[in-house]
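Work Package 3 (structural annotation) set out to generate three-dimensional models for the target panel prioritized at the project kickoff. During this period the team completed the workflow that converts sequence records into discrete structure tokens, so that structures can be stored uniformly alongside our sequence database. As a representative example, we reproduce one entry of 724 residues exactly as it appears in the project archive.
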Amino acid sequence: MSGNDVRVSAISAITNSTPYATEQTEPLSKIWACDVFNLAKMEECLSKNAFKAIKNTVKTGAPLDSATADIVAAAMKDWAMSKGAKFFSHIFYPMTNATAEKHDGFIITNSDGNAITEFTGSLLIKGEPDGSSFPNGSLRMTNAARGYTAWDPTSPAYIMNTANGATLMIPSVFMSWTGEALDKKIPLLRSNSAMNEAAQKVLSLMGEEEIAPLNSSCGAEQEYFLVDEAFVNARPDLLLAGRTLFGAPPAKGQQFDDHYFGAIPERVQVFMQDFEDQLYRLGIPAKTHHNEVAPGQFEIAPYYEAANVAADHQQLLMTVMKATAKKHGLVALLHEKPFAGVNGSGKHVNWSVGNSTQGNLLDPGNTPEKNLNFLLFCGAVVRGVHLYGPLLRAVIASAANDHRLGANEAPPAILSVYLGDQLEGVFKDILAGKINATTCGGLMDLGLSQILPFNRDPGDRNRTSPFAFTGNRFEFRAVGSSQSVSGPLVAMNTMLADSLNWIAAQLETSLSKGADQSTAVFEVLKTIMEDHGNVIFGGDGYSSEWHKAAVEERGLKNLPTTADALPAFLDESVKNLFDSTGVLSPVELASRYEVYSEQYILSIEVEAKLVIDMATTSIYPAAMSYLAELGTAASAAATFGAPFNNDLAIQVASDANQMMSSVSALKDAIAQHDFDSTEDHLNYCANTIITLMNEVRSYADSLEQRVADSAWPLPKYAEMMFIK
């Protein structure tokens, strides 16, 4: 079968397929969290004392004794086996943005040769995967490979059902034998602890007496593309790199703005319903779904949860999405830019902090100028983003996200804060030494009797801002769709902890000198605005004027590529930030720089090899075959004395020859391995390898627009984005 035959066969299979039929869905009240061993399930099957102990651990992070762990383990095993599980797994989150799991059976044999089941507290608490086989930044080697997983009781265990059966999944941390964090969860838990400790200081100084433990919360909006698996199987780039390395733009893309919030295609709607029912069973509060801007692009947005649980749920959501899409004959593409020329996909992380006694500390209320706790916490965020903007850029840096940042749908690589008109006015007043009463957004009244008036928000939304205040939280819009939310959450929690510690020290000094509370607060906020107000920006983040002003006038950094961004991990201020808060030791931070650098370099190398392979074995043969057809046509025309225009053949031959010349240069480039430093290697990939890849692509995409459709081997953009 020729390449084009494969493409035509894929189109035929898709257009003639029947939609996947799902069973009638059950009511939410029946399926919600039915596969989760949450506190409600524990209360049913644990003694009062055991339940009180585990609840205290979950709610406050208090230590859990081994006797209670044994009781919980036995109850967890019985519950899991009643759900059909024969295996359990400590699921953990290595530094790959993916999940990892090792499955063990509940089974043991006795001296009589009979099989029995056992699951003790020691088995629940600790597992042992190989630490050297995961990216670790030289923390573990083959000759020093031991690693441990350890149960995280603050994130509930659950049952993962597949066609092959049910498995009890136990969210866990992952560490080396020497105690270093090898995962995404340990730093997240540490960062939340550091933020809580710092926030408690500030709230105590503000006169708060009952202060429950504070937690950060997260609601992550997940964007993704759906492509039929028949198309993906005919595209080696989508299979191996997650994005199209070649592809000419179709005549129609997203220019009509007709896909966004449009009617969801029936096949996709069936997938979404199946997908979300599975999420509900796992206790993941999927709240919203809709068409996104680009054709074939969609979004799902869960309701916010405690950051640690939200991070685990985000990883699980991506796993369930991919598996469910496959069941429906689709592939869920989580790459940040699977198709050039149309919007890429992000994962906007909505982040706030609060507790059960003071509530959401990023909620301004109706009179933000009088809400001192809010002003301090908001000011702390402003200070943090200004001081650690390069770090925030580094934690969302990847080869994939570089293609998306700064384009029409994504914020620029310059970290700034958008507060909205109302709050920006409040902070400008503070800088000027005065406080004016704020006004709400007013009533929205269209003058139509059938449309009920409603209160307008006090500020607009700025979709060009990478870090925007959106009413009662900040939205970190630059996070990539394939990334774990843990890295961004760690950075945000830690920078907030640092700022709150600084604020506590300033308040203590002012109050000890006899200043009243309001005076002390506004002195601190005025200093923040004087030193860090440059990071606040409410205009068009895409404009060239802002890019120039941000760097030249405000001193902000523009870090367009991962090669530019990752060295932020090596900055002394960042080392001190993580070390002083206890979130990451210097060696743990250095390991992350090495791991993320290696992932970037390997991603670019894989893509470069795919470009060479596809251009050589698929695109060039198609061009030569078409040239042969044109030659036959020219000979036939000459035989009959008919005119024949050779321009097309000349253009095809020229593109093909120049493409292969660029392929040769790319081959030579990826053979280079002699670099003085990791940073040099990063820059070589960003500036040399990617430039040559784009050069090959330019000729290949030109060929796609010249070679006869019947001869082109790869599924085209219009087919992949529009045929469902």
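Residues 392 and 492 are 8 Å apart (CA to CA).
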